[in-house]
């Protein structure tokens, strides 16, 4: 299960993620959500703003390359535990 896939907005200005998002013509949050979905994690990003909810759902028209997935797999998590939880397989 994806926990805090958007890092509570803490990674929106990360230069590596910004550059990658630009290449995919997506936002950093879209990139992070798609990473989680592409890893087959259950992912439910939180937002109370209708425009963000729509943006968060617009992630199914691209695939992240293996090279970029490897970069995203190693993004420092700082104080966010999303990768720790996400690395546990879902037994649902």
What's the arrangement of secondary structure elements?
Layout: H1 15-23, H2 28-38, H3 50-57, H4 66-73, H5 82-86
Protein name: NADP-dependent oxidoreductase domain-containing protein
InterPro entries: AKR (IPR020471), Aldo/ket_reductase_CS (IPR018170), NAD(P)_OxRdtase_dom_sf (IPR036812), NADP_OxRdtase_dom (IPR023210)
Organism: Desmophyllum pertusum
In terms of structural class, how would the helical and strand content be classed?
A: mainly alpha
* Fraction of residues in helix: 40-55%
Proportion of residues in β-strands: under 5%
Question: For the residues shown, what is the average pLDDT?
Answer: 79
Distance between the termini: 10 Å
Task: Give the C-alpha Rg.
Answer: 12 Å
Low-confidence spans: pLDDT under 50, at least 5 residues?
A: none
Order of helices and strands: HHHHH
- Helix tally equals 5
- For the report, how would you describe the main beta sheet? none
Q: Total number of β-strand segments?
A: 0
Overall 3D geometry? globular
Polypeptide structure, described:
- With 92 residues, this protein is an all-alpha fold.
- Helices cover 45% and strands 0% of the residues.
- It contains 5 helices and no strands.
- The model has no long low-confidence stretch (mean pLDDT 79).
- This is NADP-dependent oxidoreductase domain-containing protein.
Summarize the entry for a quick read:
The chain is mainly α and 92 residues long. The protein is built from five helices and no strands. The chain starts with 14 loop residues before the first helix and ends in a 6-residue tail after the last helix.
């Amino acid at each position: 299960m994806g926990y805090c896939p958007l890092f509570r907005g803490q990674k929106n200005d990360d230069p590596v993620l910004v550059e990658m998002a630009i290449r995919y013509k997506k936002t950093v949050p879209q990139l992070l959500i798609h990473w989680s979905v592409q890893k087959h994690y259950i992912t439910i990003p939180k937002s109370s703003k209708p425009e963000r909810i729509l943006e968060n759902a617009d992630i199914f028209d691209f695939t992240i390359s293996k090279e970029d997935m490897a970069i995203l797999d190693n993004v420092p998590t700082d104080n966010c535990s999303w990768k720790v939880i996400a690395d546990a397989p879902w037994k649902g």
